[in-house]
Amino acid sequence: MAAAAATGQRPETAAAGEASSPQWAPPEHRRERAAAGPGEGEDAPVRPLCKPRGICSRAYFLVLMVFVHLYLGNVLALLLFVHYSNGDESTDPGPQRRAQGPGPAPTLGPLTRLEGIKVGHERKVQLVTDGDHFIRTLSLKPLLFEIPGFLTDEECRLIIQLAQLKGLQRSQILPTEEYEEAMSTMQVSQLDLFRLLDQNRDGRLQLREVLAQTRLGNGRWMTPENIQEMYAAIKADPDGDGVLSLQEFSNMDLRDFHKYMRSHKAESSELVRNSHHTWLYQGEGAHHVMRAIRQRVLRLTRLSPEIVELSEPLQVVRYGEGGHYHAHVDSGPVYPETICSHTKLVANESVPFETSCRQVSPTWGLPAIPKSGTPMTQAQPCPTGIPLGRGPGALVYPSGCPQLGTCSVAPLPYSYMTVLFYLNNVTGGGETVFPVADNRTYDEMSLIQDDVDLRDTRRHCDKGNLRVKPRQGTAVFWYNYLPDGQGWVGDVDDYSLHGGCLVTRGTKWIANNWINVDPSRARQALFQQEMARLAREGGADSQAEWALDRAYRDARVEL
């Protein structure tokens, strides 16, 4: 009773607990209880560990652990089997999995942009091992730089010789033979056309509004005098004030307009661009000087090697006396519904509009129905169809290109940057003009005021904000797009409008490197991944068959 009271239990409960407790205990516990005596044993009862049936023996635990280890081993082996089976499948996907296209493209880092700081700012850079160059900021809108001595005199002469050796062709924005076909496919009502031209929505078409939309016409650069002559010929402006009302425009027969444009063939001095050009390959296997220049551009731009190496070849241009290039931008606006053809082919996307991303003479292309992966060596005129691409810069046809019955080259992405080299000193004229550089604001309609068109480089080049005089070996470069805030391509920089002033005396030689980047980061990554795959599958020996420009492969031109 005393023990029960000390533990706070009723006597009946304590007795019942003792009666219900098992009396079996291991020998060690029995000896301890005997040594402790009856009183102490009652105060600290020992709880039994197992039932007295021998199931807690060492043999029982040994058997149990064996079964547990066998179970865990089987589970582990099954997991390893599944893992390695999947690994083998991904390593060798087989024909069905390979046909699905490339895997996820790697994430591309941000595009590098040099800081302009301020106009006139200079910085020293090392682009070659044996000397330094100085980069000077010419404007902030666009971000434009100048590098004197980027090329040596010997390199300039070599580029001219290689271009002459390969042969130059006439430069043309929109060939006259394609004008009629292009106009016949235009399906727009006369009222909609009037609204399209009437940019200020005042119900009247001024000369500058018509000029802003008719630059490409049939390849002819239209002037206010040209427009008024056309009005008079087709009797579109009865009062002769140079302004068309909606009623006057509705009374005009557009077929008379097309007939007039077809009947007036443009002279070379009336073209948008009056020059001759060719392309020089700069990739693996090219002339060592061409490779050195590309590597110098790579160090200058600080962009990834993949972007620079997959850009266009070097375009070499000759402007004779009277040559010019009216003001333009080197790339166009970024539209979400428009995709560059070259990246569409590898991204497997479908969009309403497809663009070659920059206007180059469409007479370049390859024969129809080329084999997938066909390399692009010396381009030839397309025999049938209208080419999707407009330039010989793409190295290969990506898989899945092209369609039957068309001459589909793999065209180029947007021109993120332009690097322009002056190859000689020009006796008279030939400056590169930036009409609206560093303007406080930009308004397209303000480019044409009081019959003065700032884009006309034949007549009004001296009225541009900034003119760069051509000096042999000097390079200028600028960005054609604004950043998007996330390290990639944003909106087109309207201030990058530029042109080649009229060459009044002598000849002007220049070269262009356009650094091409797709506005879609994902498509650019897929394009680079596909090009890398094609290069790997081609092998080390196959590239030399097409990469080397055959026009000067065997030439030995010493500096």
UniProtKB/TrEMBL annotation:
The chain crosses the membrane at residues 59-84. It is found in: Endoplasmic reticulum membrane. Gene3D superfamilies: EF-hand (1.10.238.10), q2cbj1_9rhob like domain (2.60.120.620). It catalyses: L-prolyl-[hypoxia-inducible factor alpha subunit] + 2-oxoglutarate + O2 = trans-4-hydroxy-L-prolyl-[hypoxia-inducible factor alpha subunit] + succinate + CO2. Residues 93-111 have a biased composition (Low complexity). GO terms for cellular component: endoplasmic reticulum membrane. This is Transmembrane prolyl 4-hydroxylase. It comes from Prolemur simus. The lineage of its organism: Eukaryota, Metazoa, Chordata, Craniata, Vertebrata.
